[in-house]
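From the pipeline queue, job 12 of 40. The input is one protein chain; the requested action is below.

Action: predict structure.
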Amino acid sequence: MDEEKIVQRARRAVAEKVFPGCVIGLIQLNKQIVMSVGTLDGNVPTQENTIYDVASITKSIPTASLALMFIAQGKLSLEDPVNKYLSELRNDYGATIEDLLRYRVKGPRMSQLKFKTFEEIRTHIFEHGFDESPSEKHAFTNLPAFLLGIIIERVDGEILPALAHRYFFEPLKMNDTTFFLASPDQDASPHNFSYRRNCVGDTHLIAPTEIVDGEEIRGIVHDESARLFARARRAVGHAGLFSTAPDLLNFLEAFLKKGFRKPLLEGAQKGLGWQIDEPWMGERRSEQTFGKTGFTGTSIVVDIERGIGLVILANRTYPKRPPDTAAINAFRQDVADIVFG
């Protein structure tokens, strides 16, 4: 693959102000390549290990992957009704775990819930429930992954960060991946599992995501609803994960090497908690290609047929979020076409 073409396309995107900078990672034939272009914020250059808020990639890594792991272990079933685990959820319309993984249910738009506490958001979600019966039309909203995250915790009895660490982050040596970023002088309480594992003191290594009301969002999740939970040290299933290109390549490599249980790969290829056959994956995508995008400008793609994994980490929402995703999706597609060409 032509690394120089990828770098040139990334530099063009920086010049066009699609984002201030990015880190692009590739994995093929056991070889990892990481390229960094531009800056974090207009000043500090990006680095290979720059930490990004991966936004909705959280829905797939770790949330959907944990659900698929539990299905493989017999702890969950696609046919299980949601109310088996969330008895307090009203208006469940008989929705199943599969409906959550396929994003067939709709409900309150969590980013627009203007509550003061995470308890108020959770209570509102449970009392409102779904708007209607599950539909075959997919909508990658936050609600299904949020509920799936709660279900996963109830099934195993541990919090989401601890489960993600035990099943994925530790065995795959994803040492810079965490739900919470903390400096060494912050409280490393035993209840804050991710704090014990990952304490990042140098904010220059963390890409900011936006400037809102004069305040720079850096080191805390960009998603509005997830941020409210994060301030209370609560992880959710739809957003909040921070990671690096090398760490995410380790995760994708496990798919390519068949390092995961077969149901995880098959589930991803069927679109269970993952996106499949999307234009942003490039015109040369194969039928076995799957991936996920994040609102902040991140994306991951795996092409099993070609044995290639692609990671793009960027902060397109900095300093101000654009009106649409046209520019970032064009960039994603162009890079994918180079990689899979």
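Job complete. The first strand starts at residue 21 and ends at 28.
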